[in-house]
Amino acid sequence: MKEVLNFGIVGYGMIAKIHATCIDEIQGAKLIAVCGNNQNKAESFAASYGAQVYTDYDEMLANKDIDVVCILTPSGTHAELGMAAALSGKHIIVEKPIDVTLEATDKLLETCRACHVKLCCISQHRYDPAIVELKKAVDTNQLGQLNFGVSRTTWYRSQEYYDSNSWRGTRALDGGGALINQSIHYVDLLQYIMGPVDQVFSYCANRAHERIEVEDIAAATVKFKNGAIGFIEGNTAAYPGFSARLEIYGSEGSVIIENDQVKEWKFKSDRIEEPPKGEKNHIVGSSNANISHDSHKKQIQDFLLCIKEDREPSVNGWEARKTLEIILSIYQSSKTGLPVKIK
């Protein structure tokens, strides 16, 4: 196994800076290639890292020195670009969501399996200290029977945000709106902590934006397979932007995490101590321009270990598919006006 794994990035929007910073800071990782359709922008981005610039993705994939590709393009292109990377023998990190349809996602998973490459989807908040401690508490039954879980993302995105790129707010490339784009992280955390979802019933609406095909508000009731119930809110019309919030209520205790920090940690047993607070300002309600990259870095570090140790990533393609299926089921319920059962 190589001591240093070489990375290529395709797409250089806001999130690319976070990926590049993480790669730059991780021992045993090196960014050597950046691909985008605008040569000048790609060169400007790549210059800080000494990376080679490509405007042709296939040409970048032909570089045999690249071991891992980070796919940071519009959501509806993730599976197609991922399959091309897998067929070139590259391991893959894809930003959320894994894609915008289950059909494309399943093709990507099968291609990665057949090509014997690793795939992970960014769900960095699973690596936040608060979530790590909450997961331990749930797995050791400290909360007792889980009864109710809530995921609420009350953020704000301006009209200028949606107008900034032609793909934003489109079903084909964005896949949806507030739910699949901004709220997906805490939807993922809800099912990660509470367990598999059995059924959803929802309403989605566009109340505050023009020239988009998708929702800026979504609300869904949730039934989990363990019998618990819950609620999901996705909102990018909550001016000026507030919080992402996870609430978990069990028979022996309750935990509330807001903006990646423990807000409430209450148990019937007085022997359970409060977990570490972790880093401040992981996410903010109005923009993701200043989010911390600490949890991204932890996930990418873990992915490198998975490659070197030949094991599955904790957030592999199948894990990412679970969250996508929940969100697509919420969209289907809103469209049909009926509950949707998840397989």
TrEMBL record:
It comes from the Bacteria. Residues 5-118 form the Gfo/Idh/MocA-like oxidoreductase N-terminal domain. Residues 273-295 are annotated as: Disordered. Residues 273-282 have a biased composition (Basic and acidic residues). SUPFAM superfamilies: Glyceraldehyde-3-phosphate dehydrogenase-like, C-terminal domain, NAD(P)-binding Rossmann-fold domains. Residues 132-255 form the GFO/IDH/MocA-like oxidoreductase domain. InterPro entries: Gfo/Idh/MocA-like_OxRdtase_N, Gfo/Idh/MocA_Oxidoreductase, GFO_IDH_MocA-like_dom, NAD(P)-bd_dom_sf. This is Gfo/Idh/MocA family oxidoreductase. It comes from Fictibacillus terranigra.
